[in-house]
Amino acid sequence: MIHKKTKDGKYTLRTATPADAEQMEEVQRICFPTLAPHELLTKEHFANHIHVFPEGQLVITDRDKVIASSSTLRIQFPKLDHTFMEVTDNLWITNSHIPNGEWLYQFDIGVLPAYRGQKLSTELYNTQQELVQSLDMKGQILVGMTIGYARYKDQFSIETYCEKLKNNELTDPTITPQRKAGFEWVQPIYHYLDDPTAGNCSVLMVWPLEGVSFQEYIE
């Protein structure tokens, strides 16, 4: 299990416990105000994630307050056009988590607004990459929400927005930091979740360990 200080020494990054579930729900509710209610994770979901795959659930705390959290499961490389509800087993992960899965799939991450800009999400990604290595896995997968599309939805389609992101012609509050952290662009999934402000879209990205290729899964 993980328990350490963040790089600046201000906060604690650790493995989540059942006692954190209620605060993790609050972090998600604040971070994803436009996500469809049936896709929002509850304290019951978070508690089950901790039960099913305890090593993969992380929080960052400011004293006793959860200020950021990240939820993952182990899988084999997914089909490219999967949805959020499919990969999370309708949010529970009980049947979609594969104990010996080769890839760590992050399906939720949130940092409270007052704590953004301190690279806390990057610390979570880096810690997960260390977990991947310690568990002898191949790398991380995530599907980042195109949160920034809300600013451009009256100008062009979500397909055009994603193309501009891929070519670094635009930046996105979620996708751009994830790419800078180490994740490599694979492709958009245009019906990944139910959030019209994000065009119902997210971008599939992969961060393999050094020497690991993921090209065989996407050809």
Automatic annotation (TrEMBL):
Q: Which Gene3D superfamilies match?
A: 3.40.630.30
- Where is the N-acetyltransferase domain positioned along the sequence? 11-210
InterPro entries xrefs = Acyl_CoA_acyltransferase, GNAT_dom
Query: Molecular function terms in GO for this entry?
Result: acyltransferase activity, transferring groups other than amino-acyl groups
Which keywords does UniProt give here? Answer: Transferase
Q: What is this protein called?
A: GNAT family N-acetyltransferase
Q: What is the lineage of its organism?
A: Bacteria, Pseudomonadati, Bacteroidota, Cytophagia, Cytophagales
